[in-house]
C-alpha cells in the first residue's frame, strides 16, 4: 500500500447492529457475560457487581451510570442511574446503590456467598460502600477476572478492531500531506489529531491504572523522545507543562531528525495502536539501520506469535536481536527505558497480555496486542514501528496497514 | 470586546517560575501543603500519603509517579518511581511503596497514629496496599481534606486561571472564522479543537469521579442537546458511539438552530470553563428570550456571589428566575435535567463548591467557579451562558471575556 492510497471506509456495525439503546441482550453481550461467568465459576465466585465504565461497556454494550449484577448462574440484572429512558428485561432505575440489594431482595434473589467487585478500579470508598450493601457476602477483587475475560476478544470485537485498524490506517496515510516546513511537533500533531477526528476517532484514550493519563497519544520529535516522563508508556517526552509531563514539547521539526506519530486509534471503543516514523530530509545511516533492527524484531517476534507462545520469550527475543545489533542502550528509551515491547489492547490501551520479563502467560486465539520495538537515537530522534495484531489459530493478523519504512516528509508524494 | 478582536498572549509563568524540574520547594508549594496541613490538624490527622496525579501536581508542582509523605508537623518527603533524574531535598527513588515505610523508619520518622489516604480516588487494592504499609496507623479518607484545601486557590493559582481564561477567550474569539455552511457538529468541533490546541490547550480534561469521562468537552447542536447521557455534566448529547455516549453526534448545523461550544480550557493544568452559543441564521424569538433569561440568571447570581453567600441560595435564585420566566422544564436539559447550575473548578472540572440543592457551603475568597445557566429548546437547541469566576473579598472577577450574545455564524464579521 502506498502512502497516497485511499483505504475503504468501515461499515458502522458498532452503532447499527450490536449495541442498542434498548439494551436488548444480543448474543454478543450474552457471550461476553458468559466468558466472565466461566472464570467466576473457576474461582468459586457467585456473583459480580460491575459498575466501572469499560466493564459496563463490555457487559452492557454502552457506557451507563449504574450497575450490572451478574450471577455466575442465572439472569443478569441492570440497575441504572443515568441515562434516563432505557427499557428492557431486568432493568431497574435507581438513585443509589443500596437499592440494588433492596430490589434483588424483593425479587427473591439470594445474596451471593462470594461477590466480586472491581477492586483495582473502584475507588476505596465506593468499593467499601458496595461491599457494605452485601454484609453477608465475602467480597473479592474481580478486576483480574474481568480483565482475563476481556483479554480474549470475541469475533465481533475482532471485527470492530479490524474497522478501527482500517480507519487508523486511513488517517495515518494522510500524515505526509499536512507537513509544512518550519513546523514544530505541536503544529504537526494538531493537524494529525484533526485528521484522526475527521476519520471518526472518538479521541478519548482509555488507560488502565489511576496514575496513567495521556491526551490523544504521543508525537515525539528529535531529542524530546529521550525525556523521561512519569507515565509508563513506551516512550516519554517532556510535554508542554508539568501538569501533563509526557509527549510533545514544542520541538521544531529539523532537518536530519525524526518524528514518531503514536496517536490512539479509538474509533469505536477499541484502542487500536500504531506508530509510524517520519524524517525531515535524510537521516544518519545509523538511524536507518536502527529502524531496520526494529522491523527485524517485529518480523521475528511476529513469526513466533501464535497460540502457546510465552510472552517473556517474545520479549527476550526482541532484547536478543537489539543487543546483537548494538542498540540495547537505546531500546525503548535512553535515560529511562520501558520494560516491555508489546501489550494487549482492547477497550483500554494496556490490557493483558504484556510482553515483558517474567511474564509466563501464553498467547491464545482472540488476543489482540500491539508490538512496538522502538529505538531512540540522540541527535536524531525515535525510530521503530508499532502495529496491532490479532492472534488466530495459526499465527497473527495485522490490523494496521500503513507502509513501514521511514517516510521523508520533505520528499513524500502528496496526492 | 468584539468577536474579531485579538486577546494578548499569556506569559508562561507556569513553566518558567514556580514549577521546576528539580522540585525545589518554592513558597507556592509550601503554601499549598500548609493549607492541607491546617485542615489535617483540625481533623487530628498526623500525616498524609499522597499519590494521585492531581494531588501530586498540587503538592509537588508536577505530575510524578510516586508518593508525597506530608506530616501535619515536620518536613515533607518525596518517594519517586518515575521520571528518573529528579534531585532535591528529601527526595528518594523507590521501586515499590513498601520502601516508603522502610526509608521513613531509617530516618527515624515515627509512624503516624492517624494517616490519611486518598480514599475517594485511589483504587481499593492500592489503598489497601498503602494502608498495610502502616499497620499501626489508623487510616482515614483524605480526599475531602485535600479537595477542601484545593477549593481555595492561592494567588498564584488565580493568576494561572487568569492566563487560562485569556487563552480560552482568545481561542473562542476565532470560532466564527471556522464556520462553513453545511458543516455538522463534528466538523465544527474539530476545527475549534484545533484552534484550542494552537492557543496552547493541553487537551486533557480532568474530572473527579471514576465514572465521569469526556473528550475535550462538548459541542451540542439542535436537538442533540436534549439527549440524556450517563455522565453528570450540565448537558448530555448522544455522542458518536455507545463507547462514549455524550456530546456531539453528527447533527448538521441547520438554519434556525443553535450550537453551544463548551470545550475544556486546560492551558496550564487549571480547567477554565466557558460556553458560548452560536446560531445558524436567525432563531425563534422564544430562543432569544430564553438566552436572555440565562444572562439575567448570571447577572443576579453573580451579584449575590460574594464571601458568605450560600451555594443553595445561589442555586435557588437561578431556579426562581427560570421558573418565573416559564422555562423551568427546559432548564439544564429537558428529558434529563442536571441538578446544579454552577461548580467549583481547579485542577479538575468538578471541584467544590457546587451550586445545587441542599448545599449549605458558603463562598470564600479564592474559590473559583463556573456558572452555567442553560436552557434547551426542542427544535432550536441549547442557549445560555457559562463563565468562570474568581471569588475575591468583595465579589467576583470574571475570567472568560468573550461577548455573551448569540452570534449568528452566517452573519458574523470575520477578520
From TrEMBL, chains A, B:
Creatinase N-terminal domain mapped to chain residues: 32-152
InterPro entries: Creatin/AminoP/Spt16_N, Creatinase/aminopeptidase-like, Creatinase_N, Pept_M24, Pept_M24_MAP, Peptidase_M24B
Organism domain of life: Bacteria
Alphabetized GO MF terms: aminopeptidase activity; metalloexopeptidase activity
Pfam families in alphabetical order: Creatinase_N, Peptidase_M24
Keyword line: Aminopeptidase, Hydrolase, Protease
Residue span, Peptidase M24 domain: 159-393
Record-linked PANTHER family: AMINOPEPTIDASE (PTHR46112), XAA-PRO AMINOPEPTIDASE P-RELATED (PTHR46112:SF2)
Protein name, per record: Xaa-Pro aminopeptidase
Amino acid at each position: 500500500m502506498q502512502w497516497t492510497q485511499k483505504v475503504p471506509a468501515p461499515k458502522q456495525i458498532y452503532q447499527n447492529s450490536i449495541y442498542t439503546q434498548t439494551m436488548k441482550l444480543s448474543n454478543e453481550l450474552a457471550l461476553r457475560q458468559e466468558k466472565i461467568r466461566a472464570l467466576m465459576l473457576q474461582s468459586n465466585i457467585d456473583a459480580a457487581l460491575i459498575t466501572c465504565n469499560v466493564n459496563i461497556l463490555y457487559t452492557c454494550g454502552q457506557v451507563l451510570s449504574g450497575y450490572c449484577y451478574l450471577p455466575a448462574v442465572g439472569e443478569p440484572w441492570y440497575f441504572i442511574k443515568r441515562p434516563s429512558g432505557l427499557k428492557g428485561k431486568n432493568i431497574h432505575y435507581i438513585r443509589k446503590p443500596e437499592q440494588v440489594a433492596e430490589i434483588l431482595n424483593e425479587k427473591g434473589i439470594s445474596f451471593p456467598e462470594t461477590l466480586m467487585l472491581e477492586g483495582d478500579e473502584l475507588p476505596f470508598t465506593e468499593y467499601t460502600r458496595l461491599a457494605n450493601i452485601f454484609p453477608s457476602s465475602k467480597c473479592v477483587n474481580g478486576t483480574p477476572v474481568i480483565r482475563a475475560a476481556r483479554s480474549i476478544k470475541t469475533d465481533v470485537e475482532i471485527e470492530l478492531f479490524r474497522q478501527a485498524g482500517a480507519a487508523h490506517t486511513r488517517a495515518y496515510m494522510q500524515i505526509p500531506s499536512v507537513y509544512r516546513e518550519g513546523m514544530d511537533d505541536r503544529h504537526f500533531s494538531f493537524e494529525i489529531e484533526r485528521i484522526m477526528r475527521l476519520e471518526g476517532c472518538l479521541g478519548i484514550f482509555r488507560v488502565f491504572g489511576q496514575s496513567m493519563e495521556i491526551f490523544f497519544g504521543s508525537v515525539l520529535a528529535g531529542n524530546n523522545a529521550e525525556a523521561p516522563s512519569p507515565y509508563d508508556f513506551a516512550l516519554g517526552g517532556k510535554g508542554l507543562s508539568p501538569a501533563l509531563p509526557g509527549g510533545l514539547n514544542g520541538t521544531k521539526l529539523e532537518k536530519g531528525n525524526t518524528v514518531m506519530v503514536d496517536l490512539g486509534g479509538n474509533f469505536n471503543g477499541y484502542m487500536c495502536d500504531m506508530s509510524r516514523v517520519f524524517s525531515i530530509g535524510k537521516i544518519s545511516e545509523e538511524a536507518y539501520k536502527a529502524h531496520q533492527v526494529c522491523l527485524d524484531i517485529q518480523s521475528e517476534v511476529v513469526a513466533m506469535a501464535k497460540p502457546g507462545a510465552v510472552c517473556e520469550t517474545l520479549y527476550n527475543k526482541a532484547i536478543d536481536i537489539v543487543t546483537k545489533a548494538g542498540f540495547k542502550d537505546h531500546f525503548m528509551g535512553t535515560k529511562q527505558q520501558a520494560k516491555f515491547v508489546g501489550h494487549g489492547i482492547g477497550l483500554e490501551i494496556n490490557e493483558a497480555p504484556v510482553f515483558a520479563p517474567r511474564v509466563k502467560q501464553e498467547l491464545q486465539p482472540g488476543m489482540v496486542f500491539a508490538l512496538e520495538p522502538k529505538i531512540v537515537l540522540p541527535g536524531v530522534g525515535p525510530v521503530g514501528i508499532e502495529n496491532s495484531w490479532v492472534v488466530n489459530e495459526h499465527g497473527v493478523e495485522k490490523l494496521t496497514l500503513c507502509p513501514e519504512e521511514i517516510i521523508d516528509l520533505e520528499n513524500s508524494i502528496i496526492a
